[in-house]
Write a structure and sequence with these properties.
Blueprint: H1 2-14, H2 18-27, H3 35-53, H4 57-64, H5 66-69, H6 87-90, H7 94-102, H8 116-126, H9 139-146
Helix pairs in contact: 2-3, 4-8, 7-9
The structure holds heme C (HEC).
Length: about 150
Amino acid sequence: MVIALFYSEFFFHYKYRFDVIVEKMIENRSKHNYSLPLALLVTIFLTKIAESAEETGEALFLKNCAECHQRDGRGISNIYPSLAGNEVVVGSGVDVALVLIIGRGEMPSFSNAMSSTEMTKIINYVRNAFGNKGELISIDIIDSLKQ
Ligand code: HEC
């Protein structure tokens, strides 16, 4: 019961910011015995990290690109280029990687917004979606271009 009370207090104050909650619990652990809720939260936290690490290229595309290039990759004519049958996309892989790393025109750079792994997944997705057929690229291409 006492544990449940502390537990809900933490949730109320920190609005489900699991990272902050865990940090506070570790800070106060000499005063109260938080081991049970702490173990629970760490589990939730790690599960969430694992989930995001497993995101597929398609999920990442829908989250980061579909807003402009549309879910079917065909864009909006004269505003957002279609990625279907696009030479930049299906070419060597370097061109599409550079667009994501540097950005282009109205399109922002994704260098700070995502990891090399995520970029590789998205690129390999767009190279083989919307009717495209492109060889898979490796993360080394992204890392070497980023430098
Ligand atoms: C805010 C809107 C927006 C988002 C989000 C966006 N793009 Fe773009 N993208 C554009 C625009 C606009 C262009 C055309 C830029 C130009 O040529 O001036 C473009 C160009 C491109 C090109 C080059 C196509 C060509 O024919 O030159 C590729 C490849 C591309 N985007 C892929 C992506 C991928 C993959 C994502 C997700 C990681 C993404 N874009 C996210 C707006 C966006």
